[in-house]
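Hey, I'm writing a tutorial for new members on how sequence and structure tokens pair up, and I'd like a real worked example in the thread rather than a made-up one. If someone can provide the structure for the chain below, I'll link this post from the tutorial.
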Amino acid sequence: MFVFGIGAAKAGTTWLYRYLRAHPECHLRGHKELHYFDVIEKTLVKMEAKRLEVEIAAIMERLPQMSPDVRAKRFADVLDKRDYHQVLATCYQDKNAYFRYMMGGLGNQRLVADITPDYAGVSVDMLRKMAASADETRFVYLMRDPVARFWSHVRMVANGKLLEGEDLSAVAKAELAHALSGEEIVVNGHSSYAHVLEKMEAAIPENRRLVMFYEDLMTPAGLRKLCKFLGIKPKLADFNERANEGKAIDMTSEERAAVRRLLRPQYEAVASRFPVLPKAWQKTMAEGFA
């Protein structure tokens, strides 16, 4: 079975990747977020290959300063990235390069997965091609309470722009104001659950797609649901583990109200499809959209 994990930034895809990679029935390469199908569609293969070259060079430069155990792990990451770089270098001539890379090192595991959140942004036509790319494909789409996801994403972007000596809270608030300005920026693009759901419904048969709430995934019942859909046995998980969790910064009540107004269509679109929403979603909706 070939599984595509998609979603939005800060919606649990890294946790999902780590869980599946540690599962004995699953095979995932060490390089997460491959961006294969989205860069193919956007003809950005050369740009992605160059970005990967820079990333590999940066890791290699830092290797001597690492402890032996960390160095071994990071060098293994480099080898995996180099393998994938070769896929990008040959993908137009060799249509099977991606799948050979994905199967590299496969033992008796029954599930192979590519967890790339940005696949949520590809077209309906590309989703159809992905669904037909293997004999048996499955899609897992993760959603998180829109306001919580949005603010976490804003803080992540702000942290990436932070200069030495700057206050993260101030930079995050400036980034929030930019996100609320109405401009089409990456944070807003990741918030469009409604659009992604429509595309998935048009491109992927119902029995081959699973939409899960981040808040439900992080529970024993949610994990059992996921594993049943994927046809694997549930494995114990650490639900207290948080991947890439940023520094907690509070929004003002006015800022939070503005974000709720911006994201109201997302709550309504999801509520129209799922009659029972997680408590976190219900709590946010109860605050109102005025």
